[in-house]
């Protein structure tokens, strides 16, 4: 059975760098579990730190980073679909996949093998509404030749609903996660130390062009409302650019909210643990401890 190493932890604990060092050691490739690093052009605010993937002059292969424009939509289904494809590709090439990030929902979905419907109801409804009733009737009868409830053929509204329900109940309508054994390594740090890291990293990002990055995104067509939708850094950058708050207030509120976000991440990780997943907690950048865990996992499966 395939194996998967999961490296999780709150923001600002050095997950990417440690994962790159480990992937380099164990002939692996990294799959990002970050809901915002998927977007192109959102580099400083999301903390991509692409130089972290460079180990001794070699770039460790990484996936699900810079795969979609910020004007497009990316959600849990999008992540699951791409994860399944990338995971299969990595394992087929004999490499060890590392799922790395702090988006707890994505990690939880992989660990629990969420069953996600391939049918996007709202999108499908809009598509079907463009068709005449006769075409909808034909489509419904093709899906359900033994249709008992003939009233579903009488109106577009009923036909559309019946078609979507029928499509969603097909055997291939659910995304299937592949089988694998997983090792979950978590990075833990004292809260006060984490707050200091967050504060220091935020200052560095503001000094290194995070505001200019937001301005560039706006020039490229990303609205201030869409920036706010991305949350945290981009929410406050949008408010600053819109002159709703000043620089000092932006920095203060942003640092405070990132610390709150890190606390929520740890709450979700502890929930994952309570629900039966064994998380092996290590200190930030403890390569030796992680190395021993992975060597044992590859040897014994535990």
DSSP summary: helix tally: 12
- The number of distinct structural domains comes to 2
Rg over C-alpha atoms, rounded to the nearest angstrom? 23 Å
State the end-to-end distance: 13 Å
Give the CATH architecture of the largest domain. Answer: 3-Layer(aba) Sandwich
Structural class: alpha/beta
**Number of beta strands:** 10
Helix content: 40-55%
Write up this protein.
- The mean pLDDT is 94.
- A six-stranded parallel sheet has the order 5-2-6-1-9-10, sandwiched between helices. It has a two-stranded antiparallel sheet with strand order 3-4. Strands 7-8 form a two-stranded antiparallel ribbon.
- It contains twelve helices and ten strands.
- Strand 3 and strand 4 form a beta hairpin.
- It has helices spanning 15-25, 76-92, 104-112, 121-129, 133-143, 156-168, 191-207, 210-219, 224-229, 232-241, 247-274, 287-300, and strands spanning 2-8, 28-32, 54-55, 58-59, 62-63, 96-101, 116-117, 174-175, 180-187, 279-282.
- It has two domains: 2-114 and 177-300, P-loop containing nucleotide triphosphate hydrolases (Rossmann fold, 3-Layer(aba) Sandwich), CATH 3.40.50.300; 117-175.
- The radius of gyration is 23 Å and the shape is globular.
- The chain has 302 residues and is an alpha/beta fold.
Q: Which helices and strands appear, and what pairs or packs with what?
A:
Layout: E1 2-8, H1 15-25, E2 28-32, E3 54-55, E4 58-59, E5 62-63, H2 76-92, E6 96-101, H3 104-112, E7 116-117, H4 121-129, H5 133-143, H6 156-168, E8 174-175, E9 180-187, H7 191-207, H8 210-219, H9 224-229, H10 232-241, H11 247-274, E10 279-282, H12 287-300
Parallel strand pairs: 1-6, 1-9, 2-5, 2-6, 9-10
Antiparallel strand pairs: 3-4, 7-8
Helix pairs in contact: 4-6, 5-6, 7-11, 8-10, 10-11
């Amino acid at each position: 059975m395939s194996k998967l190493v999961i490296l999780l932890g709150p923001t600002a604990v050095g997950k990417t760098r440690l994962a790159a060092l480990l992937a380099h050691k164990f002939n692996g490739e990294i799959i990002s579990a970050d809901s915002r690093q998927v977007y192109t052009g959102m580099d400083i605010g999301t903390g991509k730190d692409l130089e972290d993937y460079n180990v001794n002059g070699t770039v460790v292969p990484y996936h699900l980073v810079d795969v979609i424009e910020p004007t497009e939509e990316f959600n849990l289904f999008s992540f699951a679909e791409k994860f399944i494809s990338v995971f299969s590709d990595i394992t087929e090439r004999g490499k060890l996949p590392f799922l790395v990030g702090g988006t707890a929902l994505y990690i939880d979905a992989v660990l629990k093998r969420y069953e996600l419907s391939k049918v996007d109801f709202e999108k499908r409804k809009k598509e079907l509404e463009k068709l005449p009733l006769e075409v909808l009737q034909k489509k419904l009868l093709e899906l359900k030749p033994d249709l008992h409830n003939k009233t579903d053929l009488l109106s577009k509204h009923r036909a559309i609903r019946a078609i979507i329900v029928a499509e969603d109940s097909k055997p291939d309508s659910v995304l299937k996660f592949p089988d694998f054994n997983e090792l979950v390594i978590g990075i833990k740090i004292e809260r006060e130390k984490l707050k200091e890291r967050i504060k220091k990293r935020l200052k560095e990002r503001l000094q290194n062009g995070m505001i200019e990055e937001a301005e560039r995104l706006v020039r490229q067509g990303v609205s201030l409302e869409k920036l706010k939708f991305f949350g945290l850094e981009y929410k406050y950058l949008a408010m600053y650019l819109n002159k709703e708050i000043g620089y000092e207030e932006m920095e203060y509120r942003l640092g405070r909210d990132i610390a709150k976000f890190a606390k929520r991440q740890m709450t979700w990780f502890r929930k994952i643990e309570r629900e039966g997943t064994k998380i092996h907690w290590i200190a930030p950048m403890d390569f030796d401890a992680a190395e021993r865990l992975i060597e044992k996992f590859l040897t014994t499966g535990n």
